[in-house]
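Subject: Interface between my chains keeps coming out wrong

I've been trying for a while to get a sensible model of this assembly. When I model each chain on its own everything looks fine, but I need the whole thing in one frame so I can look at the contacts. Pasting all components below, labels as-is. Any help appreciated, I'm running out of ideas.
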Amino acid sequence: MLTFHMNKTLTRSDLANAVHEQIGLSYNESAQLVSSVLEEISLCLETGDQVKLSSFGTFSVSSKNARVGRNPKTGVEATITPRRVLSFRPSNLMKKRVNGG
Amino acid sequence: MTKSELIARLAELNPSLYHRDLEQLVNTVFDTITEALENGDRVELRGFGAFSLRERKARVGRNPRTGEAVSVDAKTIPFFKMGKGMRERLNK
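Reply #2:
Try treating it as a single job with all components included. I did that and got this:
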């Protein structure tokens, strides 16, 4: 049976609430711990290391060389500077779960 | 870094908390994100990035070994886009 589901966007505060309810720490402490989890992951990625979270997925940083791009609106060519980008590869479990498996 | 290394690091930073609570903290954070995606919701973590779903159409793929055509069903995939804060931190 199909039930109506209004799509929404979860934020840090929803994660803090989940931690608060599951672990029984205060909301403020939960919010601070959620930030701490994201901060430790960010610090590790900044060093260029990857972060592997089993049953969730892997975050990895890759370096892109400079290349010539084009402003899609004006068509003017511009050099895109070399940069580092973050990519996420979902685990097989997560891929199955979002497909209702 | 793995999940257990992350938990060990959080334990160092929070000596007053039980190890099993920190384990549950990390699991709750990532299970909540997975459940949201399962429900078709997005998760937006300012400064870090956003998780959303992307639809992939059914297509005719090929077995790379034999060259044989196989049909690949339409599917939904989890997608992550890094946030502005993260982009700045990686490119300082």
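Reply #3:
Confirming on my end. The longest strand of chain B covers residues 49-56.
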